[in-house]
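User: Here's a protein and a ligand (S-adenosylmethionine). What would the complex look like?
Assistant: Let me lay out the input and then the predicted complex.
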Amino acid sequence: MTGSDPAALAAADAAARLVPEAVEQGVLYIVSTPIGHLGDLSLRALAVLQGVDRILCEDTRHARTLLQRYGIRTPTAALHEHNEARSAAQVVAQLAGGASLALISDAGTPLVSDPGERIVRAVVDEGLRVVPVPGASAALAALVGAGVPAHPSTILGFLPRKGGERTSAIAWACRCPHAVVLYESPSRLGATLTDLAEVAGAERPVVVARELTKHFEEFRRGTLGELAAYYTDTPPRGEIVIVLSAAPPAELPTEEVLRREAETLRAEGQSARTVMEALMAKHGVARNVAYRLAHES
Ligand code: SAM
């Protein structure tokens, strides 16, 4: 189907008339778009994308597929992580001048592991209006289909690739007393599940959601040990969300055990600060206790 397909245009027009008054001047709309199934664009999103003066897109070529599918001919402009900061003033000026703008990302909900945060901040700081037009998000789709307690939960997004930041993020995720949602690339899935298993233990339940809303949608459930082995042997294709289930209620080691651990780390040459952070990350020890143990040892 193309942008000039009369049937598509008629359907889009009819749908848009359901919410004819959707667009206001001087407003930045944050519009969620489908994560696979093109039917997951809301009627309101369609009306807003048709009605605004300009659509700010993470990638204008990528956006064209969606916009053509719905016969949306609104002008577009690129707004991605590399030009977001310097575009902010321009966006604010356009809104202040009465323009209506929509922000979309390549898929799902902007700002959720996608660009947009700095623009929204700048617009809010100027006292201008930001209006969300909610819809698809891979994190929420994975969470509601995973079959683990979903509330409360944390959307962590992509883990840092390496180093101390990755270690701390994994420690935090594994200790979290509720479900944690992670984005991951298919090529790194096996390694990430292995890293999580090392910290959370091989028995922790986990769900891997793949190709959500698409033809090969799949939820694979098991333990970290099982799924790490499976995906290391069978590297997957497509897009992936990991839903790590909650940490079981932790029993804090006794202070004597913590002190010995702190002493061992100090004897290995770690600084008091590193030891304090290690105790907090690994065991969830309160900062003041970790500080004391790290400095006593
Ligand atoms: N803002 C988007 C959202 O709200 O879903 C997420 C953007 S993030 C850059 C892209 C990541 O989301 C992918 O690498 C993948 O982990 C996940 N993702 C996006 N679409 C997906 C899908 N259809 N199925 C599974 N995961 C998906």
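Summary: The CA atoms of residues 201 and 224 lie 7 Å apart.
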